[in-house]
Design brief:
Elements (H helix, E strand, L loop, with lengths): L3 H20 L27 E4 L12 H13 L2 E5 L8 E6 L12
Amino acid sequence: MRTFPQRLIISLCVCLAASLLVGQEPLHPRITDMKVVPSEPIPPGTCTSSRAGYLDSEKTHSTVLDDTEIGKYINSNLKQGYTITIYPRTKNGIFVYLDCNRGDKPRALESQ
């Protein structure tokens, strides 16, 4: 027959083990980046590498651009095969990221 201290120690160990098992959360994958792509493949472009920077005027090198200048910049880079991410204007100007689509990696999900 066990004494009171032995039963207490066994009970505490069982409670500790049970709380550890119940308290654990299953591991969930973390999503760090999600990219939305069109339903049809993007044709490869003539670009050679991705690039990033602030938009500026080719003539004056000013970062203050009107809608027409921004539209021309976007259109010419889309024709070269870039996927463009444009960030809101800050004190430094409009930041853009140009992701080159050379056609060497899949860019769209297959329809089921």
